[in-house]
Write a structure and sequence with these properties.
The complex is a heterodimer of chains A (243) and B (257). Helices cover 37% and strands 25% of the residues of chain A. Chain A has 9 helices and 10 strands. In chain A, the strands form 2 sheets. In chain A, strands 6-7-8-3-9-10 form a 6-stranded mixed sheet, with helices on both faces. Chain A has a 4-stranded antiparallel sheet with strand order 2-1-4-5. In chain A, a hairpin with a 2-residue loop joins β9 and β10 (214-219). Chain A is globular, with a radius of gyration of 18 Å. The termini of chain A are far apart. The model of chain A has no long low-confidence stretch (mean pLDDT 93). By secondary structure, chain B is mainly α. Chain B has one domain (6-251). In chain B, α6 packs parallel to α10 (227-251). Chain B starts with 7 loop residues before the first helix and ends in a 6-residue tail after the last helix. In chain B, 52% of the residues are buried. The chains are: A alpha/beta (243), B mainly alpha (257). At the A-B interface, α2 and α3 of A face α1 and α4 of B.
Chain lengths: 243, 257
């Protein structure tokens, strides 16, 4: 897997909602390929809007986004992105296995390959006992596992995780991070949003803090701590976006 | 990363929509077929004996194409509107919107469930009605074309309403207040030639009248208006509604914030 270059490039991104709310303000961001990147900020800062823009889920009002050099609207770019959204958005009519196989199909995998990958993901995320159960009958933790399995099924080069461990017990959280770390070691670029700052500090090589739709600080966690003269990322957060 | 399979996205989306229809078959297919057959039994076979035929056509035979058209139109519409509304409401449409699919593939893939449901219902209604009433199929190719235009038109209308609807009531409102009444006054149960002026002329403004007549021409070989006009009006409306749904997918309006 190519580990040099830019995984995600965002230039002068703007998003104004129909009600006039300005969610993103001429935002610039570059995420190098192969990075474990953290996007941190309070609720309403623009994190989910930014992720939605990268995943073709909102209509941006200005700016450019490219993924591994491809315009974000192109099919090549979309094929390279896997997203696990903050709130489970699972198809209520499909079982766990079907949800994965159909997702693979949407992303262009042939039926046989989609089935193979679905079985791999079911195994990795320990969903075997629930493989033939529909989404509404899954527990919160199982839904979270399925969301991640779905995001990773088509082997994206850029994985976007929006609060992946929110409301998840400590055991599952550790398990998920073990898997995501392994993915990152294999060269996948990870873009993570989380409210668990100690988690971001441990996992992320590079962090951007966002407030009111703008990036207010961005660097490696150690560099940020040095720059602000504090001893934790939480203190950097309090100094920058929580003001 | 795996090399993408060029048609797999569209096939998977269409497959998912058809699976939903099949999985809910008692609601999506059995119920409309039973109610159409009941219409034929009650209005055609029971009361039909007391009603003189329409021209030379027995009444029970006359109502078969209109009832098949009505069942298909409602199925194509309500399938697509409810499926898309649910996908938006539960946000699993994000899995489709973020996938490497072109807008027309999303539009077509999401619409094919309605077409599948409507065609199965149409075939089932005719398969039961023909032996019951001895209705012929005089122009099979015209019938196939009429059925195709009908499912395209009402499927696309369902897609559009499913995208605009903000509550589940909105999609049932269009069905109950617009489609159903227009179908009933669109010549399903009578020929508009029996209507006094100005009702006969007013009926020509009802688009469903042309759709019913297109299907009737395919089954009975007769129509209240010129066949070309029936097919032309149906095709023009179908094209306009498909263009509307395609516009929504191409721009993301109402689908994306």
């Amino acid at each position: 897997m190519e580990l040099h270059g830019t995984a995600l490039s965002i230039r002068r991104l703007e998003k104004r909602y129909d009600d006039g709310t300005r969610a993103l303000e001429s935002l610039d961001l570059e995420v190098p390929a192969g990075t474990f990147f953290g996007l941190l900020g309070p609720n309403g800062a623009g994190k989910t809007t930014l992720i939605s823009a990268v995943c073709n889920l909102i209509r941006v009002t200005g700016g450019e986004i490219s993924v591994f050099g491809h315009d974000v609207a192109s099919l090549q770019a979309r094929r390279m992105i896997g997203v696990a959204e903050q709130d489970p958005n699972l198809d209520r009519f499909l079982t766990v296995r079907e949800a994965l196989v159909y997702h693979g199909g949407y992303f262009g995998l042939g039926r046989r390959r989609a089935l193979e990958r679905a079985e791999e993901m079911i195994d990795v995320f320990d969903l075997g006992a629930k493989a033939d159960v529909r989404a509404p009958k899954l527990s919160g933790g199982q839904r979270r596992r399925l969301l991640l399995a779905r995001a990773l099924l088509h082997e994206p080069r850029l994985v976007i995780l929006d609060e992946p461990t929110a409301g998840v017990d400590i055991e599952l959280r550790r398990e998920l991070w073990r898997y995501i770390r392994r993915l990152h070691e294999e060269g996948t670029t990870i873009l993570l949003t989380t409210h668990y700052l100690e988690e971001a500090e441990t996992l992320c090589e590079d962090v951007a803090l966002i407030a009111r739709g703008e990036i207010v600080a961005r660097s490696a966690p150690e560099e940020l701590k040095r720059r602000f003269g504090v001893d934790s990322l939480e203190a950097v957060y309090m100094e920058t976006v929580a003001r | 990363m795996n090399a993408p399979h060029p048609w797999m996205s569209l096939l998977s989306l269409a497959g998912r929509e058809c699976l939903r229809v099949t999985r809910l078959w008692t609601q999506t297919m059995l119920a409309p077929v039973v109610s159409s057959v009941l219409f034929i039994v009650v209005f055609g076979l029971s009361l039909g004996g007391r009603i003189s035929g329409i021209g030379e056509i027995p009444y029970d035979v006359f109502i078969v194409p209109g009832l098949a058209a009505m069942a298909m139109a409602q199925a194509a519409y309500s399938n697509n509107s409810s499926s898309i509304f649910q996908a938006r409401s539960d946000r699993y449409i994000h899995d489709v919107l973020s996938a490497p699919m072109r807008p027309w593939q999303m539009n077509l893939g999401l619409s094919l469930g309605g077409a599948y449901r409507a065609l199965v219902i149409g075939i089932a209604v005719l398969a039961i009605a023909i032996p019951l009433t001895d209705a012929p199929v005089e122009r099979p190719f015209a019938l196939a074309l009429a059925a195709l235009l009908l499912v395209v038109l009402f499927g696309a209308l369902g897609t559009v309403i499913g995208i605009y609807a903000e509550t589940f009531d909105h999609h049932t409102f269009v069905n109950n207040i617009v489609i159903l009444p227009l179908t009933f006054v669109g010549g399903v149960f009578y020929s508009i030639e029996v209507l006094p002026s100005p009702w006969e002329e007013i009926s020509h403004a009802n688009p469903i009248f042309y759709i019913v007549n297109s299907v009737r021409y395919g089954v009975l070989g007769t129509s209240d208006v010129s066949v070309g006009l029936s097919f032309g009006v149906t095709a023009a409306i179908a094209l306009a509604v498909v263009a509307w749904s395609q516009y929504l997918f191409a721009t993301g309006r109402r689908l994306k914030a």
